[in-house]
Amino acid sequence: MSKMTKVLSQQAFDLRQAGLSWMEVGRQMNLSASFVRHLAIYNESLQQRPAVWTDGLQATHGVALRNAGFSSKSEVLAALQQEPALLLNHVGIDKRALEKIIAWAQLQA
After folding, report:
1. Residues 68 and 104 grouped into a single domain
2. Which of 5, 32, 51, 79 is the most core-located residue (most Cβ within 10 A)?
3. What is the pTM of this model?
4. ∠103-104-109 over CA atoms, to 5°?
């Protein structure tokens, strides 16, 4: 989910929580009532989902890390501190993915 979609889904959720109808929420956001309903419901499901150690990381990169044998943020951080380039040996982790993983790890530190 993009950052813009997250912002829109939170806004739709908040307006609905404030007591507005789906139609009113849609009008305020200049979107259809059915679309803002979908956004708000999706936002609510995200809030109820338990946290996962790869949260904040693109899903494909999280899968690549799990497939590479990592099972926690701390393991990834330790690997990045030792030799980040070694992560390039794993399927699904190219230079661009490594850059994103490093940026994610710096936010997590």
Report:
1. yes
2. 79
3. 0.57
4. 100
One domain for residues 31 and 70: no
Phi, then psi, of 86 in degrees rounded to 5? -65, -25
Residues 38, 64: one domain? no
* Angle ∠(47,48,49) on CA atoms, nearest 5: 95
Query: Measuring CA to CA, how many Å separate 86 from each of 19, 67, 75, 95?
Result: 52, 15, 13, 11
pLDDT per residue of the chain (109 residues) written in tens, 0 to 9: 577 788 888 888 889 889 999 999 999 999 999 998 888 888 777 777 777 898 888 889 999 999 999 999 999 999 999 998 889 998 899 999 999 999 998 875 5
Number of domains in the chain: 2
Q: Is residue 54 part of a domain?
A: no
Asked, for residue 84, whether it belongs to a domain, the answer is yes
Bin 19: left if φ > 0, else alpha if -120 < ψ < 50, else beta.
Answer: left
